[in-house]
Amino acid sequence: MGYKKIHFTRHAIDRYRERFPAECKNKTDGDIRRNLYVLACNSKPDRSFINNSRYMMRLYDQYGYDLDFEFLRYENLIFVAKKEENRRVILTCYPSDNWIFGKRIKFKKKKKASKEILNYLLTN
Asked: Of the four, 7, 74, 113, 114, which is 20 to 30 A from 86 by CA?
């Protein structure tokens, strides 16, 4: 990415601490900011997130329609940033393995139909 001026909101720091507790153990906010800065500088833009219209509408409703959003990916970390004139402001972050556009995926096991129900359906 190579941006020199990157600002992290308090919300982004809190979400990183909440969603990546192993990386934040025994670290101060300053240490976390420095770590996030390095990760953000090494991340690459990922425009595929812009195709999720429901999430983009939520971002626009929350932050305004005149902003230009950017999604940055570094390995399993996704940053949501807004572009400003001379800097990027990181609004929040998600782990990419089990989060899709601001909504946590909950995998549910499907219930198997009982043999009695299957027999009934097959015979009728």
From this structure: 74
